[in-house]
């Protein structure tokens, strides 16, 4: 089976753009992590100096200048707010730095408060510094400063910003591409309608001439007239697809049945076509020309899938909340699971010849113009496929 997806070939640059964004984010993460590691070592050295100074002060006779030096070390710790708790060998918490203790607490309550803070400090995984104080030991526990914690989370924030920027850029470029495609489609549709106008007028005149000439078979002329009317409908479709279509109250069952009657004469006689109409309220606001195009695209795909032999069944019924449900089932080759999510993508086709736009147009007409839904209800390889259309029916007015 040949699979063609002509629109996905130019998407490599999007992947490359996202890859570059990830590389930038990863480099930022690595660079900031190195800064954090160096700052972490610096804070550890500072606490080591603080601990040694504390030990020196407790085990030696200090004069005023040494006390002043020790106070400067304490002051430098306060400036970078490294939380410190000292604990003696018996487990008693003797002192703390850069920790705000609530006022009015007694000794027991202060110990309980400091123990809670000690548990928080120990979560930073900094091993305590052991001080040998001649006759006993002291332990200095310290946590990470506010600055260090900010730097630790900064690369994550930076990476999120880069990813958001990348996603926004991707969505912008994707929207631009879709907008450009839509402009091309609109221009192509308008130009096609314009080009069809002149020969269509000529063909209409010729049909009228044949109808007045008794030498021509009336049945042949009647079929020619149907084809000319069909061309007129196609021209109207292309005129409507490039602008916001006007929705009118129409009998959707009649619209579907008229088209299927036309289609039946133009497909293989080995394809059986059946219609089941269970609609009790068939009136709905639609654009007749565009909605008929939806039915045509789905039915023609179904006929192609059956390669001229099989059964095509169209079922119409009312659903919940006065919805109208149309199921189009065939006994064709079915859709594989890997292709099921691609059938409505522009440019996707399993046929050797084809633009892959029929189902894309059908989905756009149903969902964008009629606020309905079009999806694959069922498909199995070798057994067939069922497409389902759901549109909102008319609400009965209470007089």
TrEMBL record:
Transmembrane stretches in the record are 12-32, 153-173
Where does the Histidine kinase domain start and stop, copy by copy? 191-395
* InterPro entries in alphabetical order: HATPase_C_sf, HATPase_dom, His_kinase_dom, Sig_transdc_His_kin-like_C
Q: Which Gene3D superfamilies match?
A: Histidine kinase-like ATPase, C-terminal domain
- What Pfam families does the record tag this protein with? HATPase_c (PF02518)
Q: Which domain of life is it from?
A: Bacteria
Q: Which reaction does it catalyse?
A: ATP + protein L-histidine = ADP + protein N-phospho-L-histidine
Any idea which GO molecular function terms this record carries? ATP binding
Name the UniProt record assigns to this protein: histidine kinase
Which leading EC class covers this enzyme?
A: transferase
